[in-house]
Amino acid sequence: MQVKKDVKVQKNTYKPPKGLKKGLSESQLAYALIAPALIMILVMALFPVVRSFWLSLFDLRLNHPTKSKVYLSHRLNMERYAGDYPYLEQIIKEAADEAQGDVKIELVSVRDKILHINTTLMSDQGIKKQYDQVSDLQMRMKPVGETLQYVSIDGDTAKSMIQIAKEVDEQLHKIKDTPGLKQIVKEIRDITKDAVAGAIIVPNFVGLGNYAHYLKDARLAAALGNTFLFTICSVSFELVLGLLVALSINRSFKGRGLVRAAILVPWAIPTVVSSLMWQFMYDGQTGIVAHIFAWLRLIPDSGYLLTTRTGAMFSVILADVWKTTPYMALLLLAGLQTIDASLYEAANVDGGTKWQQFWSITLPLLKSTMLVALLFRTLDAFRIFDLIFVLTGGGPANSTETVSVYAYKMMFNQMDFGKGSTLSFIVFICIALISIGYIKILGADVLKD
Amino acid sequence: MALLKRCVAVGLSAAMLVSLAGCGGQAQQPTGAPTAKETPAATEVPAAQDDTKPAEKVTIVFARGMDSTKASNNIVEAFNASNPNIQVKFQEMPSDSGQQHDQYVTAFSAGGSEYDVFDADVIWPAEFAQAGYALALDSYIQRDGINMADYMEGQVSALKFKGKMWGMPKFTDGGLLFYRTDIVDKAPGTWDELMEMAKANKGKEGTEFGFVFQAKQYEGLVCNAMEYIAAYGGQVVDGDGNVTIDSPETIKGVQKYIDIVKSDFVPNNVTTFTEPESHTAFMEGKSVFIRNWPYQWNLGNDPENSKIAGKFAIAPLPKGDARSAATLGGWVSMINKNSKNPDAAWELLKFMNGAEGQKISAMDGGLSPTYLPLYNDADVIAKNPHFGDKGFVDGLKAAVPRPVSPIYPKLSEVMQIEISKALAGEQTAEQAVKNMDAQMKAAVADAQ
Questions:
Q1: Which positions in chain B touch A283 (Cβ < 8 Å)?
Q2: Which sequence spans correspond to the domains of chain B?
Q3: Between 3.30.465.10, 3.30.460.80, 1.25.40.10, 3.40.190.10, what CATH number should domain B2-173+330-388 receive?
Q4: Would the CB atoms of A302 and B343 count as touching at under 8 Å?
Q5: B324 and B123 in contact (C-beta within 8 Å)?
């Protein structure tokens, strides 16, 4: 808005350069002026989302030899191939020489197939040259380096190599129990898998395959269920308690400043610290909260809280409510203070009870603040991670695992960045839907302006 | 079967410990030790022998998890003093092994060369080798004539993947049973006996519990579960990487674990217990038995921290229908494949994981060596008398490795979730085993 006003002010004095005079209308010029800011916002806000979505379209696993990067074309991992092939050729020749009868026929055929793969590859001069360079480096125990590590190969060669490797594996499987050759056949199988099948990189684009996987994933359904349960329970308790706190500290009484400051303490403690604190208090042996609850007969025994599904979810929600109620209260207090005191005076003159004042004045006028506070808290609660990660680690039996915890485990524990990005994007979609829902149902009028 | 074989092999190598103590002679090669057969082809022997000792002074970085003892610093200092051309910088990593794993994978998958030598948990080598993070060491081992038969075989087999050696063993760990000698005369022989004894003796000498162990949903749950499964004759993955978890033996093992968790002689919140919770309870004098790692010995005998110093002994874990089984733990050292100075890195590895380095970590860090001749070393035994203890040696003898698989993290996660559900009473042992079987088979097929 600011920008537009400025443009208007300048209207009379501003003389555009000749070239622009015809090309840009006033509003276009305004857009041109705010363009840098818009681009900044797009880059900062949308880039991570777009990037996550892009990664979620791939079968990307950091600890998998042929899927550790985004690959759009077929390649050969020369380092692996050159490192293993000479040995493979050697032991397969030895085995073929040693074997007898039918086994020998199989092994000779395997040998021919392996040699055929190598000849096909080496018929390309570029590949041959790179192979020699890489094996020379490996002989001298020097790192191969990124430029030499991979070589592009065409799709048909790659496919036929994979097919041959598969046939070889089947042939070897048939003779795997040959007496005397057991060990060597197993080794040939392993190295074929490693040097041939494991060196060919197939494009790992899977389209929406990861999403299709999660559509049927019971663990995601459970995690989403946990997340919604947590979000709904914690946010509604926080709203009610936060409102009560806000209403009480909105009145004037002695020591109000101190109370207002003190109430923020839970919010000010880092979540990891408060999670550990609650962990001690919930502990079945020494935890004070656990013992008080057991004494009050709220729970069957003191070990109940962190060891059962209901107990663990309750514990997590309680810790979150304790931590974020002050935040809610603070936001609502700000809203309460914008309500004009004369409205209450007028209501008093008209004989309205406190209850009527609350329903007819406070709540309607607090609606927009409440919407903003709820929106913040819902989004925050939906991506809950730190509290649960420290307090329960998602357990017991995954009963407190939320979508964010699941995504973390997928990405950083399993190193599956494709699936992890898919989960992150699913969180993004859920959050976008929640935000739209809030705006539609509660506050279309509030945000119109 | 292969698991069983491997266990027998571990047993043999550990049996050697005992025989070594008797004869004090040169280590013999245990039967079936496949050292000669699996050394790689001649093509991999470095052609240029002259760059063994780098002429210029090079700096390499050694990374390992937080070391609360002085052992790591002392090793680095001793190495720097004896190798003027190589300067080693010691980099401490987080103490949580899961976090360490994640940091290494992040660094290595980006092709980083910031760590030259690093310590790895015994469950990582297959994964790191498969991903191409680690340097295969066979040519170095062959060149310097290192006899792998001097090392504990269980540890060596955990480092072997696709016929190559991806690191050198550093120290070993295995689940052991510790029992209060002021309450019971002898350790239980079977899990059923343990349950009876724990029930009968709970409450004596101020104890609150009969038995403590680890059952939270984390890696330690897999270690504990593996011990029950193997004790009753089950296995998770066979030597070829096929999932073989679905068997009546496995179900029986998991059921025993559930029975113990559900019994009245364990803490009511035992499913939140990791090592610190369990050793605290034991050292506070609250429990008759504990299943823990060897570090419990030194910690529990420190009168400043422990109320039961000198009042407990070590035994192998109880037997199931099949045998006594302990989960093999421990750490190995590996070289980053992108290291700019692999030769210097190997020199450090050779020193640190050879006789000298392992002696320092046994003396200053109290870690159990994987280099067998050290169990004959008078200095080491004097400082760590339990290395000569029969219960200790027998316990480590019974160690079985967790599944050697490049997708170990996935297999471990499946076990953590499904067994945790069974312990929480949400499914039976049979359902848990069926679910694990289906999910593990899918994961293995997916990784091909």
A1: 269, 272
A2: 2-173+330-388, 174-327+403-447
A3: 3.40.190.10
A4: no
A5: no
What does the pLDDT look like over B36-94, one tens digit per residue?
A: 333 344 344 444 444 444 467 899 999 998 877 788 999 999 999 999 999 999 999 88
Whether the bond between A266 and the residue before it is cis, its omega within 30 degrees of 0, is no
Pair type for strands A75-77 and A150-152: antiparallel
Q: Chain B, 58-97: which have a CB under 8 Å from a chain A CB?
A: none
For A64, the 3-state DSSP assignment is coil
pTM: 0.79
Exposure pattern of A284-318 as b/e (b: 16+ CB <10 Å)?
bbebebbeebbeeeebeebbbbbbbbebbbbbbbb
Nearest to A302 among B130, B268, B447 (CB): B268
User: Who among A64, A393, A412 is closest to B131 (CB)?
Assistant: A64
The structural architecture, per CATH, of the domain A213-448 is Orthogonal Bundle (1.10)
B339 and chain A in contact, CB less than 8 A: yes
Ranking A80-94, A211-225, A229-243, B329-343 by mean pLDDT, the lowest is A80-94
- CA-to-CA distance for A186 and A176, rounded, in angstroms? 7
Task: Please check whether residue B195 is in contact with residue B320, taking contact to mean a CB–CB distance below 8 angstroms.
Answer: no
The DSSP line for A136-193 is: HHHHTT----HHHHEEE--HHHHHHHHHHHHHHHHHHHHTTT-TTTHHHHHHHHHHII
User: A141, A147, A172, A313: which to substitute to probe chain B, counting the most B Cβ within 10 Å?
Assistant: A141
pLDDT digits (tens, 9 = 90+) for A8-60: 444 455 555 555 555 678 888 888 899 999 999 889 988 999 999 999 999 99
Contact flag A413-B102 (C-beta cutoff 8 Å): yes
Q: Do A65 and B43 touch (CB under 8 A)?
A: no
Torsion, CA A378, CA A382, CA A388, CA A394, rounded to 10: 150
Q: In one letter, which amino acid is B261? A: V
* Lowest-confidence pick of A431-435, B101-105, B440-444: B101-105
A195 DSSP 8-state letter: I
The burial class, CB within 10 Å (0-12 / 13-18 / 19+), for B379 is exposed
Give the model's confidence band at B9: pLDDT under 50 very low, under 70 low, under 90 confident, else very high.
very low
CB B40 within 8 A of CB A87: yes
Give, in words, the CATH class of B174-327+403-447.
alpha beta
Q: Do B131 and A307 touch (CB under 8 A)?
A: no
- Whether ipTM tops 0.85, in short, is no
Specify the DSSP element, H or E, that contains B20.
helix B2-23
**A-contacting residues in B 105-124 (Cβ below 8 Å):** 105-106, 109, 111, 113
- Report the gap between the CA of B20 and the closest CA in chain A (Å): 30
3-state secondary structure of B208: coil
Hey, are the CB atoms on B217 and A398 less than 8 Å from each other? yes
Q: Nearest by CB to B41, which of A79, A90, A415?
A: A90
Contacts of A143 in chain B (CB under 8 A): 113, 337-340, 342
- A327 Cβ contact list (under 8 Å, min separation 6): A242, A267, A377
